[in-house]
Amino acid sequence: MNQTDATRGRFITFEGIDGAGKSTHIGYVTSLLKGAGKRVVSTREPGGTPLGEKLRDLVLHEKMHLETEALIMFASRREHVAQVVEPAIARGDWVLSDRFTDASFAYQGGGRGLDRAKLEALEQWVHPHLQPDLTLLFDVPLDVAKARLSASRTLDKFEMEQADFFARVRGEYLRRAAASNGRIVVIDSTKTIAEVRAALQAALETWL
Ligand SMILES: Nc1ncnc2c1ncn2[C@@H]1O[C@H](COP(=O)(O)OP(=O)(O)O)[C@@H](O)[C@H]1O
Ligand SMILES: Cc1cn([C@H]2C[C@H](O)[C@@H](COP(=O)(O)OP(=O)(O)O)O2)c(=O)[nH]c1=O
What we know:
Structural class: alpha/beta
Bound molecules: adenosine-5'-diphosphate, thymidine-5'-diphosphate
Radius of gyration: 16 Å
CATH superfamily: P-loop containing nucleotide triphosphate hydrolases
Distance between the termini: 24 Å
InterPro entries: P-loop_NTPase, Thymidylate_kin-like_dom, Thymidylate_kinase
Enzyme class: transferase
Function: Phosphorylation of dTMP to form dTDP in both de novo and salvage pathways of dTTP synthesis.
Strand content: 5-15%
Domain Thymidylate kinase-like: 14-198
Pfam families: Thymidylate_kin
Shape: globular
Order of helices and strands: EHEHHEHHEHHEH
Number of strands: 5
Number of helices: 8
């Protein structure tokens, strides 16, 4: 029998274009879940393991072929799924990941134009039986994200991309949300932080 009952943890991922506000809200979701008595593991991609963090540093700062970039994202993910995500879910913890495979479809697929079939093949290879139980997609127009980013930090390779790149990334995220049968919940992140928190609480209600 699959471990689908109360003993299994859950896997929640956070997605959105750079500057949408997802990192800001992971702490809030952690506190909601802990308040409901869950054990929470907070992690991120690319990264989440010692090797994955080295790969993150490479992929966020070095120029490389588009397919190399996609392969590094999935190499980091392979390590992350094996070492962190699957063991945590199996012991009943709730895993919150700042990005997962939807980001590869949005950035390498939508943004850079990599053939979706290649990404689907990598997904089948790296995590054939694992999908997020819930994905929170923080959605904002590009100009809002850009203004938030430039106010907040030094930009990496992806964050320096042009508006048309982010338009394609956002479009692919929204397309996947519409096709996801409710797995991906779109959060309007143009609202105030208090309003976004209320939307997150509503999205998580049935999970608490
Ligand atoms: N709802 C919001 N209203 C105003 N500013 C926000 C909101 N959400 C996030 N921010 C700010 O925008 C910036 C980028 O947010 P961050 O969470 O780091 O984005 P992401 O992780 O999606 O790239 C931060 O300075 C953050 O404080
Ligand atoms: C997981 C993943 C991330 N990315 C990109 C999206 C982001 O621009 C970047 C790093 O993500 P993120 O951790 O959100 O950056 P920050 O800490 O600066 O908020 O990696 C991909 O292109 N493909 C992927 O599969």
